[in-house]
Amino acid sequence: MNYSQNNGFGSPSGRNNSGAVRQGSFFRSNPVMNRLTKVDEKGASNSASYTGIMIKTAYFLLMTAVGIAIYIALERMAFAGSQIVEFNVYKFHAAVPIGAIITVGISAVVAIIFQLIAAFAPGTIPFTGTIYCAAQGMIISFVVFSVLGEYSYLGAIALVITFLIVMIMAILYCTGKVRMTKKFTLVLLTLVFGMLGVSLVTFIGMLIPFTRPMFQTILSNPVISMGMTLLSIILATLFLISDFAMIQSVVENKMPVKYEWMASFGLAFTVLWLYVKILDILIQIVGNNKN
């Protein structure tokens, strides 16, 4: 999709002769959104709406909060007598019940599995998206409350920053200040493949005994680590624009209301990714400034 001009969510100027928004195949943040570019069901009488997508996105984010609440309840009731495991993360010393570690490990596996199911079977998103978001909430809760301890306020700061970024990018998109142009897509692709390339080289370097010490030294450098995390935050922020453009396409092309679930989960996925990366960089900043 390429908007040469955009006057906001409800007033795109990139239209075809029938008045519908052009739908293309530009790169997007997750395979759920990518599947929406291939949908050919348009002009439905019971079509998707911005309100419906907003409500369903709020639902998925609420399920993340439910996952956080479930973990807190388990920590207070089920993990109290568990053996304690101690470890360090970015100079934070954590003493965590082994039951919590097992729970977060299971949550991580569940999140991966249900994310993949949602991507390849979009019709299951009302269920798989719910489980994914709840599992992500449990992982976030583990990091914020079990690992950070007295620094758990970083979770609230990350939440505020995430909310502000999403609101600012939404306003910029709706007012036409930021558009899904070819140049924008090129920048997005450059960042994506650049980060994938760095990750691949790092992975290979860590596998080779001769180069492993060098890569361990590089990865332990706080400036490099924070720089990579900052790039991930920028990438997630740019993907918000891609998601907004896809949501606009869904509504303006009058796709059936069932596709609200796909668009909502795609946006919630990006928002959670952004939150996790912002929390990550806050942890690194505070951890590296600890005595």
Could you estimate the helical fraction of the residues in percent?
Answer: 55-70%
Distance between the termini: 50 Å
Strand order of the largest sheet: 1-2
The helix tally amounts to: 9
SS class: mainly alpha
How many structural domains? 1
Low-pLDDT runs: 1-29
Major sheet description = 2 strands, antiparallel
Return the average pLDDT rounded to an integer. Answer: 81
Count the strands?
2
Helix-strand topology string: HHEEHHHHHHH
Proportion of beta-strand residues: under 5%
Computed CA radius of gyration, to the nearest angstrom: 21 Å
Question: What general outline do the C-alpha atoms trace?
Answer: globular
Structural notes for this entry:
With 291 residues, the chain is mainly alpha-helical. It has one domain. It is built from nine helices and two strands, in the order ααββααααααα. A two-stranded antiparallel ribbon has the order 1-2. Strand 1 and strand 2 (92-97) form a beta hairpin. Helix 4 (125-147) runs parallel beside helix 9 and helix 5 packs across helix 9. The longest helix is centred in the last third of the chain and has 31 residues, at 222-252.
How is this structure best summarized?
Helix content is 67%, strand content 4%.
Q: Which terms summarize this structure?
A:
291 residues; mainly alpha; two-stranded antiparallel ribbon; 9 helices; 2 strands; 67% helix; globular; disordered N terminus
Give the secondary structure arrangement, pairings included:
Layout: H1 31-36, H2 50-77, E1 84-89, E2 92-97, H3 98-120, H4 125-147, H5 153-174, H6 182-207, H7 212-219, H8 222-252, H9 260-288
Helix pairs in contact: 2-4, 2-9, 3-4, 4-9, 5-8, 5-9, 6-7, 6-8, 8-9
